[in-house]
Each structure stands twice: as C-alpha cells, then as structure tokens.
Records
---
Amino acid sequence: MAPNALFLFSVLAIPLLLLPCPTAAGHDYRDALRKSILFFEGQRSGKLPADQRLRWRHDSALHDGATAGVDLSGGYYDAGDNIKFGFPMAFSTTMLSWSVIDFEKSMGTELGNALKAVRWGTDYLLKATAKIGSGVVFVQVGDPYSDHNCWERPEDMDTLRTVFKIDGSHPGSDVAGETAAALAAASIVFRSRDPSYSTMLLNRAVAVFQFADKHRGAYSNSLHRAVCPFYCDVNGYQDELLWAAAWLHKASRRRQYREYIVRNEVVLRAGDTINEFGWDNKHAGINVLISKEVLMGRAEYFASFKQNADGFICSTLPGISHPQVQYSPGGLIFKAGGSNMQHVTSLSFLLLAYSNYLSHANKVVPCGETTATPALLKHLAKRQVDYILGDNPLGMSYMVGYGARYPQRIHHRASSLPSVAAHPAHIGCKAGSRYYFSPNPNPNVLLGAVVGGPTNNTDSFPDSRPFFQQSEPTTYINAPLVGLLAFFSAHY
C-alpha cells in the first residue's frame, strides 16, 4: 500500500475527537517556541545574567549551599515554589537537551536561547556533583515544608535553605541516574560548540552513573521527609539506571554501555509500563531513544526495545482501548493524577521523535487494523500542541502570554506577588497570603509558562491559584514542548 494511502487509512481510523478543532487562523508556533524557552528565565535561581529578559525577576538564593560548605547557587525552581528539587530539574535538563539534539535545525534564531536554557541547568548540576569523587551528590536545596508554609517571592526568601544529599550510605540511584543522563545528553549538545565543556559534562556523567549503579537504592527511602510526597520516586530507580546508560551510550559510543543495557534489560525492567514517561518514569523514553539505533540498522541486539516502543505507539492511538492512555472529549491525552500537561508534552515529544526515526528508516508501526505512519504520529502530536495553544472546548491557551485568552491566576509565587521593582520592601512569609487569595490576575506575566491544565475528562479549567494541580506551571511540562514547538514552527 502506498504511504499516502496508509496515512489516509490511518487517519480515517481515528475518532473525530482528535481531528483539529476549527480555528480562525493557524498557530504562531515560532512565537510559542520563543515564549516556551523564555519561561525558563522566569524559573532561574541565583545571580541573574545581564541578558536576563524577564526583567521583573531579580537575584535570589545567592547563598544556597553555604550551610554545607559548597556553592549551590543557580539552577531552576521546578514550579511555583522556591525549592530546587534535583530530580525534576535534571529531567527537565535532559529533555531540553533532547529537544536541541533532535530539533536544533528547526529552532532558528531561538537556538541560542535554548542552549542558554540547557547550560543554566548543567552549570548547576556540575556544582551539585562536584564532590562525586567523595561519593556525594547534592540533590535538593530548601526545606519543602518551610517553603510551602509561605507565599513569598524568591528574592525575599527567608525560609530554610536546607541542603540534602545522597551518598554511599544513603543512595539515590534515581536522582543520580537522571543527573547522569542530563549531563550526558548535554555533552552531545555542546560537543561541537564547546568541546572542553562537553568533555567535562561527559566525564562527570560517567562518574555519577558509576556512583548510581554501585550504590543502588531509591532516594525516597534515603530522604523520605524531604522529597515525599513532592517528588517521591514511586516507580523505582531501575529505569533511571537504564536511561542514564542509554544516554551515555549515545554520548560516548562506548561498548560498555551497550553491554550494560543488554545485560540489565530484564533485571531493570525495561518492558514495564511502556506508555509512561516523565520525571519519575522513563520507560517509554528509554525504548524510543534506544529504538533509533535499531531503526538505523545498527543494533539488532536492541530489538526488544523497538518492540516496546512500537507497543507504546499503539497504546497511544485513539480508538485503541488502553486503560493507561485516555483522551478527554476535547481530544487531550488524559492520565489520572495532577499536572496532566506533563504527560501531554512528554508523550507528544516521544510521538514526534519516533515519527522522525520511522521516517528516516522508511518504516511504519502496525497496530492491529490501524497502521501508525510517521505522518499520523506527527498529526497526533500536533493535535496535542494545538490543544495547549487554544484549540480546545474552552477556546483558551494554556500557555501564559500566548493567544487572546490564557490563565491569569497561575499558582506561582514570583508571578503572583508584586515585583521588587514595583514593591521594593520585603514581603514576609504570611504577608504574601493576601496575594495568593486575591481574585486579581497575577501582576507579573510569566511568559511561556504552561500550566497543569485540565485534570479530569471534562476539559474544564479553574483559573485559580489554590487549584495548584491545574494552575501551576513546571519546568518538566515546558522542556519537551520546546522540541515540539521547534519542529512545528519550521514545518507548519
């Protein structure tokens, strides 16, 4: 059957709910791309650079790490609070790097800003792993209970900036594995742009991975009160070890990582939950990343990963019943739990990445009576991005600052409180509460922030700060979206 006929058959096989909603005009993906990267500047911690574009943000947390005798300034606040959680920060950095690796040719003038976003993350991760030679990795700065008890600007922070670490006696293979993956992925990004920095990243990734593999255990067990229920590792640490090995193999081409992956595929449960991907669960990402090797005809010993990746693709197709992947009436990927957009952007990224790998190999994925062509997968990913940008039953964009209607009262301290320029005086821990409960829009527009979005299957959205699962933006929602928007800005 001709490729076009395959595509036609496949599209006709999907329900109408995933066909594009009618819009007056196409989306400005280039504008959305610019804003999606700009969001990361609003999440910066530490000393802000002279070229900082979101001017309502100022320096914050300059003395992070001082209580432990180290410099842990910099990095990103993961969401609307003022904690630096290492696990989601590392995942966001990995996904920013993957976005650049796969889609840099589509980024145009935004490539430089994307590179800065990656480096802001890796510069911090290098600080956090500087004592790896002594078997120590710093994985969090800030006491979450102290922080969540206050509503204050990061510039005013007077909450506990407790430093949390993992070591040989208190392992954290999950957070260490993700950190190694981030460093390895970024080493590819900077390989030709800054060879010495790239080498530093790769060497550090190797050392951190060795530590993670040698001292196996979940950081949730070692640091339970500090990380649970916020970023508790529910899925286990095994997937992060495989994920890190996959990125180290891609970055170094060393045989030892290929052998590690093959040897540990069953032990580390590569085939588990094939349609989950996010800061906690890497399985779908592992399978898609490794499958590129198989599709290029270079690695038949990874064939089982491609089988898993094909299974992931089939499980996401609308009309194929699967309890793990559902769609709202308006066509949004829906998974139980909070911050649903994290699933939407991460899974859509994988759909797009895999569609490109299939295209280059001239392959399709058979899914029963439906054939998943590269064109169909791009269509599905684009439908999710378009929903985020406004093609949904509410007719609103879930990206702050994009479109005529978008969330005004996002659950974000810095955005919801007056800026230092507008209100130079200190705003204390409880003094910020009146801004939290205010019905007024946030005074500072956090351009590009994508909120958690609808978390039920009715496509409804309460634009209210207290509904944090719906109204809070996160770095790990935006990071995969950068790659998606780059591709669609260049091809649509």
---
Amino acid sequence: MRHPVLAPICVALAMTVAACQKPGDTDVDRAVQDVLASDESSLTGIMMTVADPDEAIRYFRRLLEEDPDKISARRGLAQSLIRAQRPAEAATAWAAVLRHPDAGNEDRVNYADALIRIGEWDKAEAELDRIPPTFETYRRYRLEAMVADGNGEWAKADSFYETAAGLTTKPAGVFNNWGYSKLTRGDFKGAERLFVNALTYDPGLFTAKNNLVLARGAQRKYELPVVRMTQTERAQLYHTLALTAIKQGDVAIGRGLLEQAIETHPQHFEAAVQARRALEAQG
C-alpha cells in the first residue's frame, strides 16, 4: 500500500507556510513539524497493521537506514517480519528493539512470542521471567500458559490460561488452547467444557468445533454437538468423529460416520472416501 499523495501534501504545506513566515516565527516551524510527525505516525501505523507485509518490511528498513536508533522503526520491522511469516528474522529484529534504551516490557513479550514461534522455548521462558509480575497483559499470560504447558506444569498452565482469559474481551482462542491442553492430558470432560466456552465467544471458530468433537469422541459420544456449523463443516466433523471411533476400536460406528460425512459434504469428500476404502480393504 503506497501513499504517494502524502509527501507532496507535506511539502506543499511546508512551502506555503514558509512563504508566509516571518523571521523567528518558531510557532509556525513547530506546527509544520507536528503535521509531518503526525503523517509519519499514521503511515507507520498503516504499515504495521494492514499494509502488505513485504512492502512494510522495505518501508521500515528504509527508515532505519535514515535513522538506525528510531525505536518505532525497529518495532515496525520486527512486527512486519512476524506478519510476513518470517519468525527467525523477527526474533533477531525484536532482540534489536530490546537493545534500545527506550524498550519496554511489551517489547520483551513480543520477543518471547517470536522465540516460541521458532521453537526456542527455553529462551522464551527466560525472557518472560525477566518481566516483572506487575506487568499483567493478555499476551504475556497467554505465552506464560503455553510455556507452562510445554513444561508439563499443569497447575501453572491452568492459572495462566484463566488469567489470560480474564484480560481480553475475545477469549475464544485462550479457551481453545486451554481445552487442547486438557485434551492432551486426558481430561476430556474438562476439555469439552472449555471448547464450548470458546464457541460461546466465537461460534465460527472451526478449530474449537473440531477439538470439541475430538473431546466428545474420546468419551465415546459419537453424536455431533449442538453448535452452529455449515454443511461442509458438518461433513468434516463427521469425518473427525469417524476417525476417532475407528482409532478406539469402534469400527462399525466409524464406518457409519464416514458414510454420513460423504453423504453430507456438498462436494466430493476425498479424505472420507479414502478412509472408507481403507476400511473396506481391511475387511
């Protein structure tokens, strides 16, 4: 996303004001600088959020060539690298942000997030440990929960997930992750409850629907839950439930669920067809 109009407007404004300016009129100078700073801030915000990530990366690198100590440009580059799915480079960029004297706790959270994305869990944990407990944000506790999960520290993970959920107005993702954690521990009822909570906040979250079916299937509840779903989603959930049943030895039930998945899908459902063929080959 380019904004070619921005620079000409600023230049024109500066020239117009300069033509009217009297010697020593510092208030006018300050007004021009405020406008320019405001425009740069707006463009930086756009680049960090909705602009094409690769273009944003080029933009922030140009800013850093002009002013290597500009922390907003360092942050913009690091965030743009995350958006561009380049987490290893983003981790390096966030480390550069932290070397700036104006870096803060949120920058360290972002660095930990980038480290987790590249599998550097121990380093991420060390960074999170450096953040004071008084810095309480949703993102901080979501990462703390993920690290605790990875360490098998279930009580800590549960506490962090609960805290994170309470610090956001959109906790569906937290409940889904927490439920998956419960699922891997074998607490299927607890997982089922958390997936339902996730769907309460985001009825369209298909990952939570699929995980809910897994949790129910692990309890041998082979009927689909009463949640909002499209026809295609219904077929996919039948397929998930079928595979769960087959894995648990309930082959006849699984075969019937595969048939329902194939019949329900509005198009050809290749994955379910292949699963049915595999069952038929086994007799």
